[in-house]
Amino acid sequence: MATKTSFAQSNSQLSLQDAEERLLGEFLQPAGYKGLYGFHKYWGKKPAECVSFLIESLSKEGDLIVDPFIGHGTIAREALARGRRIIGGDLNPAAIAITRLLVKPPAARALQDALNEIEKKTRIEIEDSYQTSGGIASHFLWDDEMLLEVWSKGSSRQLDKGPATDDDAADALSWNSYHAQLLRPLALFNNGRINTRSNFSWPDLFCGRAIRNIELLYSAILEYPTEIRNALLCILTSSVGQMSKMVFAISNRGGNTKGPKTEVGSWVIGYWRPKLHFEINAWNCFSNKAGKLIKSLNSRGLSRHEYVTDASQIDEVVQKRQSCAVVNSDAVQLLSGLGDDTVDLIVTDPPHGDRIPYLELSEMWNAILGQSAVFESELVVSDAKNRNKNEVAYEYGLGKILSLMCDKIKSEGLIAIMFNASIEESWSALASFDTRLNFAGAFPMAYSSGSVVQDNRAGSLKHDYVLIYTKGSNSHHMPFLESIPGWTCKLPSPQI
Ligand SMILES: C[S@@+](CC[C@H](N)C(=O)[O-])C[C@H]1O[C@@H](n2cnc3c(N)ncnc32)[C@H](O)[C@@H]1O
User: Fold this and answer.
1) 124 and 249 share a domain?
2) How far, in Å, from the CA of 380 to the mean position of ligand 1?
3) Tens of pLDDT along 118-171?
4) Among residues 228, 196, 238, 218, which one has the least CA distance to residue 42?
5) Rounded mean pLDDT of 200-227?
6) I need a labelling partner for 309 at 20 to 30 A (CA). Which of 91, 356, 443, 482 fits?
7) 153: closest CA among 284, 251, 241?
8) Per-residue pLDDT, 463
9) pTM for the complete prediction?
10) How many domains does the chain have?
11) Residue 407 belongs to some domain of the structure
12) Whose CA is nearest to atom 24 of ligand 1?
């Protein structure tokens, strides 16, 4: 068990007990997503404090950690910051783009230079499209296809809000004849739970003006070399939600007595397009997000790490010639490419049954990245009937992956799986696992207090569990983990 050594190594100035208590305290009550971790709204991302607690508790410096479902990539950054080697994979190109940004962010100065150039190339043209009788508009309030209000930045800090004129409406509607020229078509499914249809196209989600402006930004971004381009594309994917028809309007909040008041909401998980919605100036959305990223780069604490990107190169990390791999790959393929008994720790967070259909939700981002996701390989239970992603296939897939994980960890290695699901069947693979594995125990893991919606349905789960498995007949004594509040030797049952 690595706990004692690693705590001592990384916190030499603190007493062992203080360090353990601090980490445990942060694990139990993680703060909101800060800096780089707050920049992109990736689905189901885990709090940095929880991830770093697991790394510190379950591995030591120099160890090889694998996460085949790396998602937002927090674990890759936290592992590198603690001197571990990390091999991360994900089927979702959007997840890989964000993980690569986290592992090797560009220098703030270089990104700022690129943003200044992009501003010179695109801003005037974009803002021209928002020119109204009251100046350059920042927001348009729509009721379906009817333009109600136009807001613009006035001389004071307040927004000038007024009813739309006939000219504003005619101009706004004239953009609806614009069709995407650079962005590939969307590939979605009939899925009522996330409000999609298989024939969805860009105009279902964005008005023509936003599509044109996204394409202007996209073509300017494509001119940059890989690292800067990836960061710029992440800015674009993280800002398009606010450019879409999915930004709801909040009416009359707080029982306003001075008449109706409308505030700008946000877009939420799923492709819900509210009748009353905002169209927001695309330049403002893009530059706000860019500003957030630059700010977080200025305060970043991780030195720059090279990483390998191809599945055929992961051995470089196993052999200690590189410290990191971030591969766009199916978990089965990634794990199969590793030698048996080579991994010290697998810490991962597979999709939790039907909770979040990652690839369907990320389709908008992947189309903007110019990449296609391999939907057939996704480990998920989806309400999209023609995907055939049901509980049986999910249980079989997860069981297979757990077996592969068992092959790959060393005899003294560990597997930590973050999980929760309200449907009993989703737990099956974790309960009736490969007989070479021992289930050691589990403990609850909080969501971040600033967490985005974890589930989009009523009765959503309130926390996850960390399930610990060991290999073979090794029974590890883990006094520290066993002292975590809520530790249990029984597999948790589905609960909310
Ligand atoms: C629960 S999320 C991981 C979240 C991550 N721990 C974080 O903090 O952001 C699960 C991830 O598994 C990915 N995924 C789904 N099926 C996969 C597969 N067959 N192989 C690899 N990744 C897959 C999804 O794209 C998603 O990013």
Assistant:
1) yes
2) 9
3) 999 999 999 999 999 889 999 999 999 999 999 998 766 778 889 999 999 999
4) 238
5) 97
6) 356
7) 284
8) 81
9) 0.92
10) 2
11) yes
12) 358
Whole-number Å distance, alpha carbon 294 to ligand 1 midpoint, is 27
Range of the domain at 167: 108-298
**Residue to probe by mutation, ligand 1, list 54, 329, 358, most atoms within 8 Å of CB:** 358
Give yes or no: residues 80 and 64 share one domain: yes
Alpha-carbon gap, residue 115 to 465, rounded angstroms = 41
CA distances from 295 to 22, 34, 120, 291, 292 (A): 27, 11, 21, 6, 5
The alpha carbon of 330 and the centre of ligand 1 are apart by a number of angstroms equal to: 9
Average pLDDT estimate for 467-492: 82
Give the mean pLDDT of 44-69. Answer: 94
137 and 277 part of one domain: yes
* Nearest atom, ligand 1, residue 331 CA: 20
Same domain, yes or no: 192 and 235: yes
According to DSSP, residue 405 is labeled H
Domain end: 298, 315, 348, which one? 298
d(CA 90, ligand 1 centre) in Å: 6
Q: Which of 298, 331, 348 is the last residue of a domain?
A: 298
Distance 332 CA to ligand 1 centre (A): 12
CA of 71 to the centre of ligand 1 (A): 5
- The answer to whether residues 290 and 307 belong to one domain is no
Do 248 and 229 share a structural domain?
A: yes
Protein residues with CB under 6 Å of any ligand 1 atom: 42, 44-46, 68-69, 71-72, 74, 89-92, 95, 330-331, 349-351, 358, 377-379
**Helix H or strand E encompassing 368:** helix 358-368
* Distance set, CA 136 to CA 149, 158, 172 (Å): 13, 14, 13
Distance 182 CA to ligand 1 centre (A): 28
Examine the domain organization and report whether 458 and 361 are in the same domain: yes
Residue 51 CA: which ligand 1 atom is closest? 8
Residues 84-116: pLDDT tens digits?
A: 999 999 999 999 999 999 999 999 999 999 999
Binned at pLDDT 50, 70 and 90, residue 71 comes out as: very high
Q: How confident is the model at residue 496 (pLDDT cuts 50, 70, 90)?
A: very low
Given a contact cutoff of 8 angstroms between Cβ atoms, the answer to whether 448 and 462 are in contact is no
